[in-house]
Amino acid sequence: MDVLERIDQFVKQNPVLIFMKGTPQFPSCGFSSRTAEALKACDVPFGYVNVLADPEIFENLPRYRDWPTFPQVYVNGELIGGCDITLEMFERGELQPLVEAAVKVQEGNQQA
């Protein structure tokens, strides 16, 4: 499977997903750490991909949605942005309702 197809699968299978350096429990950079903390504070489950553990994804993710930096946050398959945008949305109270709605949609689809 092509790496962009693998990335696309991760994005489509997770209503809330962060591509980050490290893991939410053990982030490997400050930007990834702050972004994961904002997602954790929303108290909804989210997926993650440690780009440091997969060099192919690390090299090719910037091409997927033409976003050059890490972390990258996706909600309902759409790129939300990186650290700054995610934190701004969190501070404005926009992130939590967005990710809660995404998780509810997935839960509804699983029950159907």
List keywords for this structure.
alpha+beta, 2Fe-2S, 112 residues, four-stranded mixed β-sheet, Glutaredoxin
Would you kindly provide a brief summary of this structure?
The protein has five helices and four strands, in the order H-E-H-E-H-E-E-H-H. By secondary structure, it is an alpha+beta fold.
Write a structural description.
The chain has 112 residues and is α+β, with helices and mostly antiparallel strands. It has a single domain (3-111), classed as 3-Layer(aba) Sandwich (Glutaredoxin). The protein contains 5 helices and 4 strands. Strands 2-1-3-4 form a 4-stranded mixed beta sheet. Strand 3 (72-75) and strand 4 form a beta hairpin. The mean pLDDT is 95. This is Glutaredoxin.
Detail the topology: elements first, then pairings.
Elements: H1 3-13, E1 16-20, H2 30-41, E2 47-50, H3 55-64, E3 72-75, E4 78-81, H4 83-91, H5 95-111
Parallel strand pairs: 1-2
Antiparallel strand pairs: 1-3, 3-4
In order across it, which strands form the biggest sheet? 2-1-3-4
Mean of residue pLDDT values: 95
Distance between the termini: 29 Å
Domains, number: 1
And the CATH topology?
Glutaredoxin
